[in-house]
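ARCHIVE CARD
CATEGORY: sequence design from structure
SOURCE FIELD: tokenized fold
FIELD CONTENT:
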């Protein structure tokens, strides 16, 4: 974010993974595949609302993908109009308060 490497050695760490492993209240290190990791941020009281918004957004995205996949399957098997296209599913509009909170977080 600041355009410079993290001062790991000055902070007493040998690697970024060692740094984040030393902050279990902030980030969780999850093994992924082939020796890679996923870092998951842990919400506190000040970021709990944002974490809930993100979780809700993920659930909605899965539902949209499922609906779109069903629409594609139905459109492909439709004998009435073989060239019909499934209707696009619109993403929900983010409330102004949530948008402002996210902007504050990113700034």
């Amino acid at each position: 974010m600041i355009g410079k490497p993290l001062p790991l050695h000055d902070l007493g760490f040998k690697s970024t993974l060692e740094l984040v492993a030393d902050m279990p209240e902030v980030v969780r290190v999850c093994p992924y595949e082939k020796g890679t990791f996923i870092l998951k941020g842990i919400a506190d009281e000040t970021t709990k609302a944002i974490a809930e918004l993100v979780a809700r957004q993920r659930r909605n995205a899965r539902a949209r993908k499922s609906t779109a996949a069903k629409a594609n399957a139905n459109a492909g098997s439709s004998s009435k109009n073989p060239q019909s296209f499934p209707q696009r599913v619109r993403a929900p509009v983010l409330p102004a308060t949530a948008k402002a909170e996210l902007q504050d977080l990113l700034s």
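CARD ANNOTATION: The mean pLDDT is 76. The longest strand covers residues 27-31.
SHELF: design records, drawer C
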